[in-house]
């Protein structure tokens, strides 16, 4: 879902899923929709984004967003006319496209939340995430070694050298892996063990033989796939991705140490983190070293950080549109109004999801998102602490870590334009919220 046509196809597929879901309920003469914990602030945020793209009376726009009204009047002054109707967004077409994208993701989340009721369904979903993450990791690694500067080696030239796999920006691949790896770890931790075999596997040699036996099953591959995906994310070279992945693993270790068998779970997650780093160093230690070096330079010399300059200018921009912002996905259009850095580069994003939410949707939009994320985090914590079995507990832990990892990465990177990451995050969050209700099928 990098190109607009791919986003359109994904949106149509999700719409088809929603239609089939509703028709199935109507066929059974019922219409029952379970709403997730944070549905109200989410609906209000989506309503705000749609409102930004609608044509409204000029007097109303001047009342709620004087900055947007002033810019609209200035634009109309060049034509000699006067606008009787205005939009809160300074690029209503871009805002409307983003609203459709978010509506599609919200519908997908709602379908998953209402239909995934068995452990088999959840396991299939996580396996699909793992397989796709592994394929993308392999694709990205091969591309790193053989790339000619063109997408898929045949398409148009990449705008810069930070592409990784099908993603224009390596940060977006890392953002996807931050969601997939915790779910893969949860699946590995929740695999049912054979008590007889486990009882006779008291030393590492016996455990290794059992792991390598035919009876081990496909779940024995998960540790290797976790190392491959995590190592590829580190080799991608994204500083924010590196920090987000390591932060997600640290959070998983910290939260996973509580509850029954918590210490053993925490040790296994910590071991996974160490193996991911080792795998990344084996695949491309020079790249990881360069990433850490660039991160240290940016932290050690903040006055020279381009990202901090952008954030400072973005906050100045927000002060001109404090309440409702300039319209979602309008940063690239409006930022030149506040830009002070002389670098000959066009900035299309604020290099921070949270700051761009503030500039695009104002204090109201950012507050609604924070409330939605906070309510979801609390709901996942309740699922984790109230879980009756290892399956529901590890799944809730994975969803919580995936959500917090995405939030951490959003501090210094942008994932808002990437629909695929939202879709995977929707699965990672929706499934654990209903894990306690799943039946063993």
Please supply descriptive tags for the structure shown above.
441 residues, mainly alpha
A few lines on this structure:
With 441 residues, the protein is mainly alpha-helical.
Walk me through this protein's architecture.
The protein is an all-alpha fold and 441 residues long. Helices cover 69% and strands 1% of the residues. It has 17 helices and two strands. The chain starts with a helix and ends in an 8-residue tail after the last helix. Mean pLDDT is 85; it is low at 195-201.
Distance between the termini: 32 Å
Radius of gyration: 23 Å
Number of helices: 17
Task: Count the E strands.
Answer: 2
- Structural class label: mainly alpha
Into which percent range does the helicity of residues fall?
55-70%
What are the low-pLDDT stretches, counting only 5+ consecutive residues below 50?
Answer: 195-201
- Order of strands in the sheet with the most strands? 1-2
SSE sequence, one letter per element: HHEHHEHHHHHHHHHHHHH
Q: For the report, how would you describe the main beta sheet?
A: 2 strands, antiparallel
> Strand-residue fraction?
under 5%
Mean pLDDT across the residues is: 85
Backbone shape: globular
